[in-house]
Every structure is written in C-alpha cells, then in structure tokens.
Design goal:
mainly alpha; single chain; four-stranded antiparallel beta sheet
Amino acid sequence: MTETNANRVSQWQAAMKDPFRDRLLPAGADFPMQVEQCAGHVRDEPAFDPDMIDKISAKIILPLDTIFPHPMLERIVRVGLAHINATFKGNHPKYGAGIYSHDCHDSFPPVIVSAVDALTLWGMISRAEELFEYWLNTFVRPDGTINYRGTSLSEYGMLLASAWRIIKRGGKTRWLKNNCGKLNLITEYLKELIKTAGSDRLLFGVPEDDEKGSPATYFHNNAWVIRGLEDWAILLDEYLDHLQEAEQIRQETGRLRILLIQTLKQVWPKDDSDWWLRPTIEKVTHEPDGRPERITATRFGSYTNYRYWPELLSSNVLPKELMDRIVQARLNGGGQFCGTTRFEEHLDDWPLAEWLEGLWSLGLYDDFQLCLWGHIYYHQAEGHLTAYEQVTFPPGRQYKTAAYCLPCQLVAVRAARHLVP
C-alpha cells in the first residue's frame, strides 16, 4: 500500500460519517457508476472455479418477466444463487470456504436463513423446502435448541421467519405440516424462555457465536424472538388451524414488544443527536463512560454496528422513530464506509441484508441503493464476484483468514429483489 493510500485509509478509519454519502446522494440514473468510481475494487482469489459458477448461473431459471434495472444486478443474482449449489454439499450446509468449510460451522443458522430467503425470493421454492427440511431434521435437538456452539436468540426467531417465507412465497402446506414438529420444538423453547423470564423482564441470552461468552439482555435478540413467534402464529392460524395457540403466542409477543419498546426509551439517551444506542439493558463496564468514542473503536461497538443494530432494525417490531434513530446512529457514529459496514479497522458485510431490509421498510431508498452498490463494488471481488466475510478498506482484498462465506454472497441477491418488479 502506498503512503498516499495509507493516509487515505487512515482518514477513512477515523471518519465519523460516511466519506461518500453526502456527495453521492440523492441517487440519480448513473448512481451505480458513481459509487464504483469512489475507490478501488476488491481483488482476490475466487472461492470456486469461475467457469463452474458461470455454467451453474446460466442454467438458473428466474421468474418470468424478470427485468433488472441494471445489467450487473442480474449477474449478481445468478452468481449468488449459483454459490448456494457450490457451497452446499448436496443438502448439507457449509458456511463458506477455507476455515469456513470446517464441519463446526455447518449448523450456523444464518447459512440456512440466508439461503431460504434468497431461494424463495427468486422462485426456487422446492429447493428451499428441501434444504430447510434437511436442516431442521439434522440440527434441531429434541428440546428445541440448535446443535451449534453459539446460537443467538435472534437466530431462533429467524428460523421461524424462514418457515413463514417459504409458505407465504408459494411453498406447500404439506411441507409445513411435515415439518411443523421440528418448528414447534423451536417455538416451545422460546415460549419457555419467555415464561421463565417473567412478565416484567426481557430475555437474557447469547447475542451471536463469537460473543457467546458475553450473554446479556440484548435488544436485537428480543426483537427477533417477537418477530419469529409472530410469523409462526400466522402459520398456526392460517395454515395449521391452531387458532387458540396462535392467539396465545400473539398475547405473549405483544407483551414482550411493549416491554422492549418501553425499555429502549428508558435506556437510550434522551438527546436524539446522541448516536450511542447501547444494545443491552446492562451497561458495559469496560467501556469508558459505558460507550466507545467511535462505534468501531472497540470490539463491543463493532459488534453493535455490524450485527446488533442491523438485526434490531430488520425485525420491524419497533416504531418508526426508534428505527430512524438506529439509522442515524450508524451514520453519525462512524459505522459506514460507502454504504458498507465498518468493523474495527476493516469492513464486514455478511449481516448487511438485515440493514438493507430495515432501510427499505423505512422508505430510505437512496441509502438502500448506496449500501447495495457499495457492497457490490467494495465487498465483492471484481470479475468473479466472490464475497468474502470481511475485506480491507480499498483497495480491498480478503481480510486475514476471513474467507468467502455464503451469507455475504447472498446479501445483494436478497436485496436486489426489491428493485425487480
């Protein structure tokens, strides 16, 4: 890296605001090109043989009358969907390549959650049903817990939402009836957690695998438990004829939602311009004054920025004013670079689909496009489009051993569906 570029990266890393957002927005007709010209592309080795990926891509049948607003998006979608077949070993999931192909990562819930979402969005319902059924039968224990080393509570909710996505996007009721046993085990596990917590307490648990040693009362966990159970209640009501059980779940999640919103209003600063929105009820004592000086200045702040805030946003269980505050927190606390997600001294976008979903639901379409195109140009490799779990600041490449991972490959695949009628 030249001295000039090293200075530029240092300035980007110290910035409290996205250095390109004000210049690029509002988005115009040539917006993708403008984003592409901001910095250097990602360049590194592909996870799979590009010719093999291209052959799989060419055989993918997209929904009839699919019209992409930009030719790059069709290739992004085709290549991304092809990576599902390349990454999975038949029906057996893999997180990615390199160290991420090790067996210990196979049951990581975001792999199946992202694959089911991407497949169902692009009409591949049968494949989604097949993969999810295998996953449920392989990794859900008899007590409803997941056979993984650090499953977050939010991931349990996302698994229930995945069943809702399959059915609401054209899946068979027969598939739901065949798999409701495993899904109900997950539901009962979450309901027992709610019961044990009591009527005046939010749920306490693991926030994500890397931080499994730091359980606490995380807001994103509670939000996605609410969302997942509400989606499951819809399936119980409309497809399984379990009206009484569905109503009981709605009452429990309604109480939990009220408690979550009340708690957020109590815990978050009264000053709307204060960007530090801590992700837990508990204060983190090792942070100066309980907060980082910049959101990516600490490990706790970086995890908040790259996963806890995005999942809280995508749950869509908060009122608009609280969702807006989360967006402003990322934009003003040093959490974004040309739309991509900052994590410590590099970029980490694999949970970005959650952030994009939140932006879209808020109607922040220009910011949505900035994050989408920023991800494409600064988190996916030029040419073969491999998406690594983490990348360096431009000129980008894979960050250390953070190799290709499927959830990151499917970020743009999932988001692009919003732009295609």
